[in-house]
Design goal:
heterodimer; A: 354 residues; mainly alpha; 13 helices; B: 302 residues; MetI-like fold; 73% helix
Chain lengths: 354, 302
């Protein structure tokens, strides 16, 4: 990552710009290659299926003529690479096939299920950022003393605990025993279908239509799964923030600032943390991407009707179009967010600015 | 006492007299470093405990963890059933003990798939350089960017549900960091003199890669494998929990949680206890990995 970022201080502005453009071009190339790789894998998985794709469409009572016609329509007589290009073309048009389970285009299903996952992962990531970063800074500033140890233990547990188990224990304690939060699902049943799903993100929809009861109910349902999903984000972000901060705090400019009598708060937040923030962009992007895909397990525990649950249910119903469509969409988001944060990092990195 | 002293002397001698002694010395000195790190020792003891429990399973347990005792179903933890019984009256303690073998099986299976692939691709890319390097590393980067859980799910969908297929799917998305590490190591030793000497002796490229480059990659690969193992165990357990990994009645911990889920509110021990087992083992690997990294690579430690 950092190798391309090492612009020499003596280089002129033209050269800096050129090296920056080159590094951006590099990111875009690998983005393209990764997408090709991802689609190649889902294409191969689709072809490896034991089920006959023609029979899946025409049913086993169709005549040979109908069968042959559909066979040709699907382009199964063409060489594999032509079939793959055709598959790519369909993907670019947003055509992911039809789901057997819901009898609707997979794309429509995904558009319906995705906002729930987005809502969960976004809140979880925000939690990781706003709790994890201060924790990491605190640990680095008090390195080797008790705040550092506490943060270390918390992040170790966040790393090591199976998230689905953590979710169940949290449901047992905070929902079943204490009754502090609402149970599984996104809303209580009697609130279902009242607000118009404009954005698909329930709290925003409820707030827009002024249904504050629903807003509170949705929030009460969201708190627990978002916190559980956020544990991993928190652990990761806190650990990386700590190690980045330690790197900065050991450098000479920090010593200089301290010798000059700058207040410690300003040294930490104004100097060291500003440099850490740039490095954290990639970490936050990585976390967000992994939470989008990692929400599968959390969604299952909390019966959260998101894309993860959609894929899991489709899997058990042998609905391959839906499984592969979901994989492509989540995979594309995963790859896209990672590359975007990498790109952003290259844009704001002061070593290649100017 | 005296034999211990001579053994110690042999292990710490200034100049080793044989290859074997040198090797033992390296391990011993590493161990002395390692012993000073209490957190790493806890991790080591957890993993050692897991291995011992798995090996002694027939003597620790009173049942094979599979036979049904419907009269005893959903019994809370007691002196007779330490961790209680599940919905089919099976002793949860016994199932956890037998499940440790499955966990070790996952660890072993992933390692023997992932390490050779990673080493092969990484050392070839680093040693050969040029277009071979470019192509192999592009491939590695593509796999590095894949979402692991979702892809594993899609693969299990075609390969069929089951522990081996789940592990295979995990391995497919796990080898890439090892290729990166092996390449980095190969790049640094490619131009060293002992490689040049080997080349001039007429040793084939395959021989150099296998006998001279690969052994030097092993320590960093081992550290990375230990650190990644917690994530691998969690993913395997997650697939088991979704019903895509090990199938009932196998006492795989993730699958046990999945089956016990419906008893969460009234019989909390059924789903929660296997989760504690997963937590302890993955904690053990994380702690051990941190410790090993400090021993092998003191620079990156803090």
């Amino acid at each position: 990552m950092a190798s391309a970022a090492g612009g020499q201080p003596t280089a002129g502005p033209g050269q800096a710009l050129r090296s920056k453009l080159a590094s951006i071009l590099g990111v875009l190339t690998s983005l393209l290659l990764t997408f090709i790789g991802l689609t190649a894998i889902t294409f191969v998985i689709g072809r490896m299926m034991p089920a006959d794709p023609v029979l899946a469409i025409v049913g086993d009572r169709a005549s040979q003529e109908v069968y042959d016609q559909v066979y040709l329509q699907l382009g199964l007589d063409k060489p594999v690479y032509i079939q793959y290009l055709r598959y790519l073309e369909q993907l670019l048009e947003g055509d992911l096939g039809t789901s057997i389970m819901t009898a609707q285009p997979v794309m429509d299903d995904i558009i319906r299920f995705f906002p729930a996952t987005l809502e969960l992962a976004t809140v979880a990531t925000l939690l990781g950022i706003f709790v994890g970063i201060p924790m990491g800074v605190l640990a680095a500033v008090h390195q080797g003393r008790w705040p550092d140890h506490i943060v270390r233990v918390i992040s170790l547990i966040g790393y090591s605990a199976p998230i689905f188990w953590l979710g169940m224990v949290a449901l047992l304690i905070f929902y079943a025993n204490l009754g502090w939060v609402a149970g599984p699902g996104r809303l209580d049943v009697f609130y279902d279908g009242i607000v118009e799903p404009t954005t698909g993100i329930l709290m925003i929809d409820a707030a827009m239509s002024g249904e504050w009861d629903i807003f509170h109910n949705a929030l009460s349902h969201l708190v627990l799964p978002a916190t559980i999903l956020g544990t991993f984000a928190l652990a990761y972000i806190a650990r990386m923030t700590r190690s980045f901060m330690l790197d900065q705090l050991n450098q000479e400019y920090i010593l200089t600032a301290r010798v000059k009598g700058m207040p410690e708060r300003k040294v930490i937040w104004g100097h060291a943390f500003r440099n850490v923030l740039v490095q954290l962009i990639t970490i936050i992007g990585l976390t967000y991407a992994s939470l989008l895909e990692g929400s599968v397990l959390t969604e299952t525990v909390f019966s959260w009707p998101g894309i993860g649950q959609y894929i899991t249910n489709s899997l058990f119903n042998n609905d391959m179009n839906a499984v592969l469509g979901g994989t492509i969409v989540v995979g594309a988001c995963f790859v896209g967010i990672n590359m975007l944060s990498d790109l952003l990092y290259r844009l704001v990195d002061p070593r290649i600015r100017k | 006492m005296t034999t211990e002293a001579t053994l110690r002397g042999w292990l710490l001698a200034e100049i080793p007299t044989s290859k074997w002694q040198a090797r033992c010395q390296r391990i011993f000195i590493g161990w002395l470093d390692f012993k000073r790190n209490p957190i790493a020792m806890i991790g080591f003891l957890i993993i050692l405990g897991l291995v011992v429990i798995a090996a002694l399973a027939p003597w620790i347990t009173t049942s094979d963890g599979l036979e049904l005792h419907l009269a005893d179903r959903l019994k809370p933890p007691s002196s007779e059933h330490w961790f209680g019984t599940d919905e089919l009256g099976r002793d949860i303690f016994d199932r956890i003990i037998w499940g440790s073998r499955i966990t070790l099986y996952i660890v072993a299976l992933v390692s023997i798939i992932v390490v050779p692939i990673g080493l092969l691709i990484g050392t070839v890319a680093g040693y050969m350089g040029g277009w071979v390097d470019t192509v192999l590393m592009r491939l590695t980067d593509i796999f590095l960017a894949f979402p692991r859980l979702i892809l594993a799910m899609a693969l299990v969908a075609v390969l069929g549900r089951g522990l081996e297929n789940a592990v295979l799917a995990i391995a497919l998305t796990t080898w890439s960091p090892f290729a990166r590490i092996a390449r980095a190591e190969a790049l640094t030793i490619r131009n060293s003199e002992f490689i040049l000497a080997a080349q001039m002796q007429g040793i084939s490229t395959v021989g150099i890669l296998a006998r001279h480059v690969t052994p030097l990659c092993m320590s960093s690969v081992t550290v990375r494998l230990t650190l990644d193992m917690a994530g691998i165990i969690l993913t395997a357990a997650g697939l088991g929990f979704l019903g895509l990994g090990a199938q009932p009645p196998t006492p795989e911990w993730g699958a046990m949680i999945s089956l016990g889920r419906q008893y969460l509110i009234d019989q909390w021990w059924v789903p929660t206890i296997p989760g504690i087992a997963i937590l302890v083992v993955s904690l053990g690997f994380n702690l051990l990995g941190d410790g090993l990294r400090d021993v092998f690579d003191p620079k990156s430690g803090n």
